[in-house]
C-alpha cells in the first residue's frame, strides 16, 4: 500500500492536483480536517457510535464484524466515487484518524479495483501534530502589525481592503467565528468554532504567507469559544501597534450596518444578546434598549452601547500599549495609504519610529 507522510502531502499539494479524502465520520470532519479535503465517511456518526460501543462492551472482534457488515453494502458507492475523483485529479489520498483500519481497509479495496490511491501515514493525528508544532514555533518567524481601536472604528474593513491589495492579513474574528463581546456570534450564523478548526485555519493562512509580516486586529487571547495559541499571542504583544480612530457618527453607522442590516436582519438575536448585558447595564437600561430594537431604532442602541459599554470595556486594553502612530478611518483613503506605506517600510527595514 502506498503511503505519504504529512510533510510529503503538504509539499505535493503545492504542485499537484491531489484529491484528499477524509473517511472519518461527519462529526469528526466538522470538528477539524485537512484543508481542501472532502468527506466521504466510511461510517456515519450513528454507525461509528454503535461500533465504538461494541468495541467497549464486546471487544474488538465484534466491533470489526459490525463495521464490515455496515460498510460492505457501500462498496459499490465507494468505487463509483473514487473512480470519478481519480479521473479529475493527479493523485488521490485517503486518511482517517490514525491512518489505521478505516483508511487502510478502504485503500486496499480501492487499489484492488485498479485505482491508484495513497494513505496518509499517521492519519489526521499526524496532521494535527504538524499544526501544533508549527503554531508553537510561529514566534520565531512572524512579525505582527496590530490594529487597535474602539468598537466600530472600521478595523475589519481596513483588513479586508489591505488583503485586496495583496498584503498579508490574518482575520482572527473570521476564523474564530466571533467578532467580540456579547454580540460577537451574531455576525457569524453558522455555529461555534472548534479550537482544532481555529488552529487549522491559522496554520493554513500563516503557512502560505511568504512574508514574515502580517496585519491583524488586536484581540485578547480568548475570542468567542476559542483561544489564540500562546506563541501567536506573544508575537502579537511584541509586534507593531497602530491605533485606528473614528468619529462617533461613523462608528454608530458601522455597527448598525454590521449587526442589523447586511448580516443578520434578526432582531431576536439582537435581543437575546442584549439580555446578556443585564449585569453590566441593569435591567431598566436593557429593557429600554430592547424596546428600541423592537421599533428598529438601531442607531440609538449602537450609540448608547458605544458611549456606556464598549468604550469603558476596552479603555484599559487600549491604554496599555505604546503606538507607532494613530490614524483616522474617517479619512479612509489616507488611512490605507499610510498603513501600506508603513508595511513597506518595515518590510524593507526602513522604518524609524
UniProtKB/TrEMBL annotation:
All copies of domain Rhodanese, residue ranges: 14-136
Domain of life the protein comes from: Bacteria
InterPro entries named in the record: AAA_SelU, P-loop_NTPase, Rhodanese-like_dom, Rhodanese-like_dom_sf, SelU
Pfam families, per the entry: AAA_SelU, Rhodanese
SUPFAM superfamilies in alphabetical order: P-loop containing nucleoside triphosphate hydrolases, Rhodanese/Cell cycle control phosphatase
A Gene Ontology molecular function term of the record: transferase activity
Keywords on record: Selenium, Transferase
Catalytic activity, EC: 2.9.1.-
PANTHER family assigned to the protein according to its UniProt record, in alphabetical order: TRNA 2-SELENOURIDINE SYNTHASE
NCBIfam families in UniProt: PRK11784.1-2 (NF008750), PRK11784.1-4 (NF008752), tRNA_sel_U_synt (TIGR03167)
Protein's name in the database: tRNA 2-selenouridine synthase
Organism expressing this protein natively: Acetoanaerobium pronyense
Amino acid at each position: 500500500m502506498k503511503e505519504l507522510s504529512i510533510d510529503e502531502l503538504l509539499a505535493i499539494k503545492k504542485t499537484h492536483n491531489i484529491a484528499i479524502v477524509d473517511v472519518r465520520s461527519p462529526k469528526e470532519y466538522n470538528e477539524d480536517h485537512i484543508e481542501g479535503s472532502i468527506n466521504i465517511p466510511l461510517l456515519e456518526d450513528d454507525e461509528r457510535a454503535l461500533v465504538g460501543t461494541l468495541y467497549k462492551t464486546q471487544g474488538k472482534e465484534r466491533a470489526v464484524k459490525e463495521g464490515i457488515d455496515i460498510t460492505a453494502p457501500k462498496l459499490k458507492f465507494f468505487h463509483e466515487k473514487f473512480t470519478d475523483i481519480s479521473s479529475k485529479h493527479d493523485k488521490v489520498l485517503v486518511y482517517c484518524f490514525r491512518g489505521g483500519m478505516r483508511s487502510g481497509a478502504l485503500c486496499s479495496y480501492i487499489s484492488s479495483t485498479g485505482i491508484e490511491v495513497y494513505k496518509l501515514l499517521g492519519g489526521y493525528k499526524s496532521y494535527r501534530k504538524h499544526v501544533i508544532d508549527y503554531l508553537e514555533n510561529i514566534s520565531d518567524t512572524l512579525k505582527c502589525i496590530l490594529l487597535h481601536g474602539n468598537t466600530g472604528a472600521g478595523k475589519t474593513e481596513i483588513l479586508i481592503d489591505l488583503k485586496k491589495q495583496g498584503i498579508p492579513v490574518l482575520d482572527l474574528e473570521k476564523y474564530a467565528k466571533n467578532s467580540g463581546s456579547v454580540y460577537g456570534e451574531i455576525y457569524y450564523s453558522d455555529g461555534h468554532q472548534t479550537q482544532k478548526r481555529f488552529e487549522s485555519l491559522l496554520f493554513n493562512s500563516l503557512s502560505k504567507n511568504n512574508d514574515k509580516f502580517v496585519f491583524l486586529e488586536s484581540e485578547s487571547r480568548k475570542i468567542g469559544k476559542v483561544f489564540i495559541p500562546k506563541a501567536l499571542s506573544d508575537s502579537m504583544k511584541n509586534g507593531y501597534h497602530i491605533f485606528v480612530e473614528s468619529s462617533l457618527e461613523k462608528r454608530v453607522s458601522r455597527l448598525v450596518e454590521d449587526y442589523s442590516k447586511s448580516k443578520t436582519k434578526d432582531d431576536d438575536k439582537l435581543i437575546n444578546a442584549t439580555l446578556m448585558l443585564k449585569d453590566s447595564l441593569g435591567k431598566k437600561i436593557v429593557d429600554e434598549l430592547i424596546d428600541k430594537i423592537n421599533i428598529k431604532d438601531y442607531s440609538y442602541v449602537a450609540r448608547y452601547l458605544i458611549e456606556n459599554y464598549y468604550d469603558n470595556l476596552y479603555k484599559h486594553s487600549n491604554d496599555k500599549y505604546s503606538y507607532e502612530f494613530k490614524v483616522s478611518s474617517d479619512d479612509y483613503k489616507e488611512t490605507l495609504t499610510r498603513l501600506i506605506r508603513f508595511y513597506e517600510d518595515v518590510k524593507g527595514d526602513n522604518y524609524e519610529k
